Amino acid sequence: EEQLVESGGGLVQPGGSLRLSCVASGFTFSTSWMHWFRQSPGKGLVWVSYINGDGNNTNYADSVKGRFTISRDNAKNTLYLQMNSLRAEDTAVYYCARDGIMRAFDIWGQGTMVTVSS
Amino acid sequence: DIVMTQSPLSLPVTPGEPASISCRSSQSLLHSDGDNCLHWYLQKPGQSPQLLISLGSNRASGVPDRISGSGSGTDFTLRISRVEAEDVGVYYCMQGLETPWTFGQGTKVEIK
Fold first, then answer.
1. Taking Cα atoms as reference points, which of B68, B103, B104, B110 lies closest to residue B89?
2. Which tens digits make up the pLDDT trace of A78-93?
3. Closest to A111 (Cβ–Cβ): which among B35, B39, B48?
């Protein structure tokens, strides 16, 4: 079964850091483009970041550029999102997803909640 | 950024009746290879999003054929021929043409 499982969410103070992980199984992770999304409470979906299969091409939403870093370890079938300088507005459920074709995201994780609050 | 606009934002439906959702983009989503980079997702209550339709009209694996997508350029439609209870949730269109990849506001479908 093709699956993505996120972890690493939690409560963090403003200005703090957190690293999210997303473990893939059931498909060839190393050739898959991967993305992070987020969804603030009661709000819609927002794309956060993307990384290509070998990790040498990344992109970020303006709202997180310079603060978040996406990376991957293909040997561990794991995608990461390092989040620094966190703000209250970063509070959201964070999802990882596989890019199937032309940004049709065909596998999603269950999400991990990040709460930024003092 | 490409702005995606859905209507309606709320859609009460009667089981067995048809339903449709409109999605418009602020610029054409037609890729140079001829595909429309427009995808539809459904987020059921308490769940992660799931892919319904890719490239404007291609049903994802496991999606029933009573759900269909159509349209080209800037105007797209998702249709459900006969609504069932399992169809409730929030439907999102999303453009996959250029970064930042953007979603519509979402259309909440609920049973009357």
1. B110
2. 999 999 999 999 999 9
3. B48
